[in-house]
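Fold Annotation — chain and its backbone

Fields — amino acid sequence, structure tokens

___
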Amino acid sequence: MALRRASAPKVLRRSFYERPTLDVLQDIIGKVLVHEVRGRRTAGTIVEAEAYIGEDDPACHAAPGPTKRNAPLYGAPGRAYVYLNYGIHYLVNAVTEAEGFPAAILLRALDPLEGIDLMAKRRQIGARLEPCDNTRLCRGPGNLSVAMAIDLNRNLADLVTGPLRIEDHGIVPASLEWSPRIGISVGMASLWRCHWAGHPAVSQNRMSKAPRRRTQGE
């Protein structure tokens, strides 16, 4: 169940991202990812995301130090870091913290809000999806990027001023859960995956913990 504040949608300012990554992670659940492509708009509420923090995080792309590929992680906060995963899926991240410190939040799942028919067409599964199953459209980071038409052209996109952005629509989850990140084999001790508790669009709920904030050192 969501709580909704009475407020007009607002694009998140850069100061939202210029904070400790786990604070941003907690606050980004319930925000709305928007993408406008050739006058067509799709949008969805962020219900699941993961943090990747610093060169000491073995699961972070910055673990080996600066490279051409991971350069966006060291850049200005509030920009997108988009990369091709295993040569198959584009994954989209929001860069956080101060410029020069590599950290980002991987967006893992959305609850579709706008452009649902277009999302289904992009995923080529519209005929097989019942209306009640729309939460499947953006479940998982690869599906999210396909449905929202996000690819390497949006790498380094400014999330504050560009057509790919994150907005505050006044949606507040009733509760959050924290767990180990998904799809990695290192860094499993850190409970740096946060999701909207009980939401059907969340990609996976196994191994979830009681709702509480995790410190960045854990």
